[in-house]
C-alpha cells in the first residue's frame, strides 16, 4: 500500500510550502477533482473520517496510507486551492517513466535518421547500379551492408550517448532539487530525532531536566487538589476546635501570670482582688473567718425576705388573689349545651345551646366540656373542628413529596423539564461537571501563553532567560 510518511503541503504550481495553511483542515482528493481518496492512519490503520487532515506547524500532515496504486494525490483547502502530494515510490516510478520516454524518443529519432539514409542509398544504387556505403559502412563481399542499431531502424544503444539528458524538460517529475524542497532529508530527520525526548529515557522524564513554566490546568488533578487546601494564613472559629490545648495567651490580652490570674469577661487577664496570691479579702463587706470561709447570710446579699419553702407551700400573693377575683367561675365539667357568660350584674350564667349569643357570651361546651364550634366555617375568622381540618389537609400533597421553589431540598430520581432550566452563573465548580477537569488538563491555559516560539535546540539553549508567557517549541 502506498505510504505518505512525511507529507508536506506544497503549492502545486511552485512546489514551495504554503504557510497560510498551517492549522487549517484539508481534504485528500484525486488530482484535478474534488473526489476524496480513502485514507487511513499509517500507525494504526484507522480510517480517517472524510479524508480530512490538519496542516501542522512545519507544513506537514499526519502520515497516512492510500489505496493500492495511488501514489499521487492532491489536498484541497477550504478556499479551493490545491497542493500536490507524492510518495517516494510514486516519484521513483515517474522518474523511470520519464527516462524510458526519453530513451524511446531518442531511439525513434535515430531510427528515422538511419531509415532516411538507407532510402537515399537505395535510390543512388538504382541510379548507378551499385551501393557504395550506408551510414559510412561499405558493402561486404556479397554486396550487403550491415547496419548496427539498438531499435527499429537502428540508432545508438548507449544511454550516455543520448543528447539532452541534463535538460529539465519535465517539471512534473521529481528531481533532487524538488525532492529536497518537498521532503525532509535523512540528515534533517536524524538531526530532529537525535535531540527529541523519548518515553523510555529516564533523563527525559525527570522533572529536574525540564525548564520553563507550566499552567496549573495542564497538571491532572492539581487545581482540584489546591481548591481542597486552606490558605497558608487563615483563621478558625472557636466552634471548629475539637481537641488539643489552647495557650492562655491566645484566650485574652495581657500577662497571664500562671495560676495567680483570671480571665475577665472583657478578654483581659487580671489579678484577683485579694492580691496575686489568690486569697479573698471580703465578700459584700464580710471578711473570711479563721478557717478562710466567708460567713454570708441572706441579709448580706439583699435576700432578707426570702423563705426556704417548697413551691406547693408558697402562698398566693395579695396581687394575684385580687386579679383572680375578677375572673368567671367555671360551670364545671359535663355542662353540656351550655354557654358561659356574664349577666347584667357581672355574675357567671349558663345559656342553653341555640339561644341567641349576646355580647357578653364567651364559649359553648359539649357534654365533655369541650368547646363547640361550627363544623364548616363560613368566614375567615371562624373557628372549626379537627375533623374539618384533617379532611382538608388530607387532600393535599405531603410536604416531603413536592419540589419547593425556595429553600434547600434534596431531590431524588430523574426529573424531566419541559423547557431548559436556568442555572445561575458559577453555580457549579469544575469538579461538579463530569469530565471537565480531565478535558482541561490536556489544554494549555490561554491565560498563561501569549507567544509561541519555534527554533532549533541550539537556539533554545542560547536563550538565557525564558519568558513565562511564551510556549517554546523545539523544531530541529
Task: Give the N-terminus to C-terminus distance in angstroms.
Answer: 30 Å
SS strand fraction: 5-15%
Shape call:
elongated
Outline the low-pLDDT stretches.
124-129, 353-357
DSSP strand tally: 15
Class computed from helices, strands and strand pairing: alpha+beta
Largest beta-sheet characterization: 5 strands, antiparallel
* Rg calculated over all Cα atoms: 55 Å
Number of alpha- plus pi-helical segments: 9
Helix share of residues? 10-25%
* Spatial strand sequence of the major β-sheet: 2-8-7-3-5
Topology order in helix (H) and strand (E) letters:
EEEEEEEEHHHHHEEHEEEHHEHE
Mean of residue pLDDT?
Answer: 73
Descriptive report:
There is one protein chain. The protein is an alpha+beta fold. Among the domains are: 3-86, no CATH class; 108-177, no CATH class; 448-474, no CATH class. 20% of the residues lie in helices and 11% in strands. The chain has nine helices and 15 strands. The chain has helices at residues 88-128, 176-182, 186-194, 202-205, 222-227, 318-324, 386-394, 436-441, 457-461; strands at residues 3-4, 10-11, 25-29, 40-41, 52-54, 64-65, 72-76, 82-86, 262-263, 269-270, 338-342, 348-352, 363-365, 451-455, 470-474. Strands 2-8-7-3-5 form a five-stranded antiparallel beta sheet. The chain has a three-stranded antiparallel beta sheet with strand order 1-6-4, with no helix packed on it. The protein has a three-stranded antiparallel beta sheet with strand order 12-11-13, with no helix packed on it. β14 (451-455), α9 (457-461) and β15 (470-474) form a beta-alpha-beta unit. It is elongated and about 180 Å long. The two termini are 30 Å apart. 8% of the residues are buried.
Amino acid at each position: 500500500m502506498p505510504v505518505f510518511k512525511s507529507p508536506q503541503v506544497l503549492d502545486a504550481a511552485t512546489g514551495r510550502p504554503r504557510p497560510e495553511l498551517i492549522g487549517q483542515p484539508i481534504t485528500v482528493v484525486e488530482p484535478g477533482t474534488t473526489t476524496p481518496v480513502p485514507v487511513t492512519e499509517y500507525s494504526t490503520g484507522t480510517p480517517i473520517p472524510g479524508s480530512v487532515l490538519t496542516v501542522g506547524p512545519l507544513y506537514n500532515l499526519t502520515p497516512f496510507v492510500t489505496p493500492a496504486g495511488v501514489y499521487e494525490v492532491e489536498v484541497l483547502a477550504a478556499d479551493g486551492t490545491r497542493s500536490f502530494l507524492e510518495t517516494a515510490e510514486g516519484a521513483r516510478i515517474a522518474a523511470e517513466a520519464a527516462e524510458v520516454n526519453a530513451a524511446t524518443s531518442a531511439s525513434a529519432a535515430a531510427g528515422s535518421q538511419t531509415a532516411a539514409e538507407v532510402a537515399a542509398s537505395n535510390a543512388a544504387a538504382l541510379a548507378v547500379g551499385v551501393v557504395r556505403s550506408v551510414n559510412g559502412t561499405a558493402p561486404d563481399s556479397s554486396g550487403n551492408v550491415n547496419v548496427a542499431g539498438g531499435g527499429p531502424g537502428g540508432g545508438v544503444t548507449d544511454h550516455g550517448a543520448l543528447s539532452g539528458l541534463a535538460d529539465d524538460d519535465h517539471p512534473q517529475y521529481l528531481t533532487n532539487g524538488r525532492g529536497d524542497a518537498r521532503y525532509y532529508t535523512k540528515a534533517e530527520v536524524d538531526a530532529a530525532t537525535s535531540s527529541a525526548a523519548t518515553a523510555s529515557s529516564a533523563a527525559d522524564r525527570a522533572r529536574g531536566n525540564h525548564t520553563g513554566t507550566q499552567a496549573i490546568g495542564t497538571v491532572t488533578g492539581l487545581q482540584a487538589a489546591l481548591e481542597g487546601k486552606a490558605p497558608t494564613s487563615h483563621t478558625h472559629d472557636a466552634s471548629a476546635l475539637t481537641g488539643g490545648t489552647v495557650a492562655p495567651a491566645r484566650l485574652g490580652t495581657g500577662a497571664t501570670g500562671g495560676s495567680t490570674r483570671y480571665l475577665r469577661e472583657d478578654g483581659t487577664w487580671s489579678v484577683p482582688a485579694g492580691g496575686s496570691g489568690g486569697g479573698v479579702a471580703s465578700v459584700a463587706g464580710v471578711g473570711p473567718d479563721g478557717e478562710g470561709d466567708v460567713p454570708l447570710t441572706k441579709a448580706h446579699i439583699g435576700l432578707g425576705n426570702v423563705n426556704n419553702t417548697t413551691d406547693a407551700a408558697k402562698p398566693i400573693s395579695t396581687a394575684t388573689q385580687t386579679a383572680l377575683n375578677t375572673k368567671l367561675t367555671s360551670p364545671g365539667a359535663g355542662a353540656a349545651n351550655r354557654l358561659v357568660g356574664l349577666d347584667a350584674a357581672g355574675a357567671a350564667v349558663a345559656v342553653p345551646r341555640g339561644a341567641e349569643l349576646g355580647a357578653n357570651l364567651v364559649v359553648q361546651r359539649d357534654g365533655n366540656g369541650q368547646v363547640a364550634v361550627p363544623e364548616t366555617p363560613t368566614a375567615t375568622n371562624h373557628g372549626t373542628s379537627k375533623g374539618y381540618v384533617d379532611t382538608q389537609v388530607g387532600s393535599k400533597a405531603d410536604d416531603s413529596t413536592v419540589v419547593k421553589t425556595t429553600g434547600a431540598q434534596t431531590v431524588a430520581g430523574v426529573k424531566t423539564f419541559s423547557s431548559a432550566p436556568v442555572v445561575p452563573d458559577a453555580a457549579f465548580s469544575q469538579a461538579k461537571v463530569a469530565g471537565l477537569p480531565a478535558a482541561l488538563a490536556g489544554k494549555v491555559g490561554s491565560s498563561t501563553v501569549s507567544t509561541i516560539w519555534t527554533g532549533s535546540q541550539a537556539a533554545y539553549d542560547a536563550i538565557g532567560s525564558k519568558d513565562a508567557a511564551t510556549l517554546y517549541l523545539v523544531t530541529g
